Amino acid sequence: MEKVINCFKRRADAVSRLICFPWAGGGSIHYARWGNVLSSSIEVLAVKLPGRESRAKEPFFHHMQQIVDEVIGALLPLLKEKPFALFGHSFGAFTALAVADALKKVHNLEPVHIFLSGASAPYSETRIKAPKRSELSDEEFLKWLISVGGTPPELLSNHEVLKLFLPSLKADLHIVENYRCDKPDSPFLSCPVTCFDGKDDIPHDLQAWKDVTSGNFTIKMMDGSHFYLKDSGNEKVILDFITKHLETSEIDYF
Hints:
The protein is an alpha/beta fold and 254 residues long. It has a single domain (5-253), classed as Rossmann fold (3-Layer(aba) Sandwich). The chain is 38% helix and 15% strand. The chain contains 8 helices and 7 strands. α2 packs across α3. Keywords: Fatty acid biosynthesis, Fatty acid metabolism, Hydrolase, Lipid biosynthesis, Lipid metabolism. GO terms for molecular function: fatty acyl-[ACP] hydrolase activity. Its EC number is 3.1.2.14. Belongs to the thioesterase family.
């Protein structure tokens, strides 16, 4: 499990687990450190994908199913032990949904809550019509990356670092741009789903995510653009919200 998951603070007595999925090109550390901040009742497990961090020498995945199979293979025993929730931003929102879909259909397991951020539902018209960024030249891709914001300027100005960073980002975008997910005929989940987004990001079809669940559905808009969640104030709001809802779901679960 250590190859696939980064956990800064193991909590054997935690009542629930929060599984976090990285944004495109992202690593696990941003989320793993949440384990040092969140309540002791929550254990945070951050997904670590090939081609970055301690897995830098491994080839990138090319298909969403590879991520789903690896994450479920690593976590299935833990997910059967106690309640769990999923969090994913942007590319991570798609991977969180794909994992939740497989867990429900194959293993009849369901999260107690799914937190999705910065992305349209994959079957929405907004998403289907979105341009394919992974096919841009490096120069055009870099221009788009700057327009999105959230990438440290020192990284963008360092060509050697960019050579290492751009391939993982493009690989992840290739996966999500080729991920096919039909709009559910009926909700396949019953857990609450919460969507977060930045008010200044490009418009996302958040409402379409409601189709995946028969449970409560909430949208929370926050100040900022695509990487609004990197702002410390926004992060505190998100973590307080997650804590409140997981602690409530723990009561309901038991």
